[in-house]
Input
Amino acid sequence: MKPQRRFQTSFVLAIVALAPSAALAQDEPVGPTSPPGGEGPVMVPGPSTSTTVVSPAGPGPGEVDSYLPSSSRSTTDINQSKSEFDLNPSSAGTPALRGGKGGQYIGEGASVPQAHTVKRGDTLWGISGQYFKNPYNWPKLWAQNPQILNPHWIYPGDRLRLRVDEFGGPLRPKTVPESTVFLRNYGWVDDPEKDRWGELVGAPDDQMLLSYGDDSYIELDEDKHKNIKVELGQELQLYRPVRTLRGREADASGELVEVLGTVRVDRYNPKTRMIRAHIIEGIDVIERGVYVGPIARKFLIVPPTVNEKYLEARILTALYPHQFFGQHQVVFIDRGAKQGVKVGNRFIAVRRGDRWVETLDVAGPGAKIRAKTEDDRDGEIEDLKTDGPVEKYPNETFAELRVLETRDNTAMA
Output
């Protein structure tokens, strides 16, 4: 890559510049070699020879930055608002932006996207030149992306952060309202065939269970592949149907779907409909036969949203078949976007009734009677009071739910 070649050239030039100095420091002396006053052979020098060494001349005064582009040359007068080192010379009424060598080209930075997805053939040198019009700025681009361990090795699908603020610093983190929920989605209730592109059908390794770091083979569905656009570096989700559910209304029915992981497309053959993909995230055990689709498995940052209408919903299920649910657990309800549910809406989990009376049917018929121990006659019993006016009982609040994601007739909270 170009940055690497530049460092190698500098290293070679440094060796050439030092070699003549060493040679000049080792010239052969001329004169008698025997001690003074002593007798001995006298060495007569032959014809004198001289070696002319030409060393490259260094830059002259004021030419230290001559090899740099004009936007990266240093300036001696910081009060000049229109000097060639002003990185934003056309902005009237704003302070001049100055910096060291390789500074950001802020004039072009206004339209720079927040991130760049690496494609085949990309280099930090080329990306820096594309967005900032200064390929020598690649070390700063590398510094903004600490996940890159070696700047000479970036891979298709990698995400690079590009955006900086107006003064060339990193973007300030955005603040979110208090009580915001952070969660990554891991399931939904709906028809799993809607998002299905194909299946994971095989793998090159001799193992039954696949996980993070493994490669896999995906076959796209024969009826859908013509309308599917597959790109190298694209991320797809692995998921599987868990169980069928049905709510109070037929519209709320569907299958509980569990997300198992994420794969990255490394190779695609449209003729055979086969994808060679690398598993970049494993949430649970991945086996052959799981579904593949373009489901955005993103981190959900859900601030509270004001409810616009009154709705009643029921909890359908959770990803794991628990009988009781607690704080920070995720459940699915039988109301969705078609009923007016929006992300961030708040639901209050309430219950009405007498829990002890409700459990008597499970205990058997003998649980609804009691022996009259205060009566001295044998075998006297009486029925327990179990027919209270449940519809008049007040609601008891148990929990607060925040809607994290909605589908047409269901929602995750």
